[in-house]
Structure formats: C-alpha cells, structure tokens
Amino acid sequence: MLVLQRELLQAWTAKVCAPSCPKVAEFYTDYHHSKHVNRKHTRRYQCELCNSAFHLNADLRRHERTVHRNELSGAVEEFTCPNAECPIPGKVFVRKDNFERHVRGCGRSTMDV
C-alpha cells in the first residue's frame, strides 16, 4: 500500500526544483513551484535607499522600517524594556517581535507592559 502511494505521489509531481537548490522539493502545481522560486531564489524587491534586495515585499517593508527609520518620513514605533533589572537598560527595539522576545527573557510578558 505504501509503495502504491509513493508511486502515485511521484506521478503527481509536475515540477522539481533546480538541482542547485539545497532543498530538494517536489511541487505538484505551477503555483507551488513559482511560490517556492519567488520566496527562495528570486529577489524581486529592492530597497531604493541602499539597494539591498529581498524575496518578499514584507521583508523589504520591514527592512525600511528598521534600517532606514530615520530617513523615512513618519513616526516609527519604538519599544524599551520596562524591567528595572534589565541587563541592557535603555535599549531601543524598533521591531516588536525582537522586543517581545527580549521581554520574555527578562521575565515579564508584554501584557504587563
């Protein structure tokens, strides 16, 4: 039964990623193949300020918000640890995910903030 399933699976395989790809992956539709290529092999979004390139538009936007926050117009939210016993007091976090990870490590949840 398992052999039959494997044969059916191989028969459905429409696209296989390039041999140079470190991830050996099989794709059953053109959509999944193009999604993989766009996310892993093609840097379609380029920063106009420093020419860094990114696979996803969301990655470019995050880069602009964090790296170029002083050059872009508009306020960027910044976070500082509220823990008085923080080993790096006064550190400013511009990414909320990094701030939340830091606060968890300091022993307080962001709900206490």
UniProtKB/TrEMBL annotation:
One Gene Ontology term from the biological process aspect of the record:
regulation of transcription by RNA polymerase II
Q: Kindly list the places in or outside the cell where this protein is found, as annotated in its UniProt entry.
A: Nucleus
What is one cellular component GO term in this UniProt entry? nucleus
Q: Which SUPFAM superfamilies match?
A: beta-beta-alpha zinc fingers
- Please provide the record's keywords in A-Z order: Metal-binding, Nucleus, Transcription, Transcription regulation, Zinc, Zinc-finger
Q: Which Pfam families match?
A: zf-C2H2
Q: Where is the C2H2-type domain?
A: 45-73
Q: What is this protein called?
A: C2H2-type domain-containing protein
Organism taxonomic ancestry: Eukaryota, Fungi, Dikarya, Ascomycota, Pezizomycotina
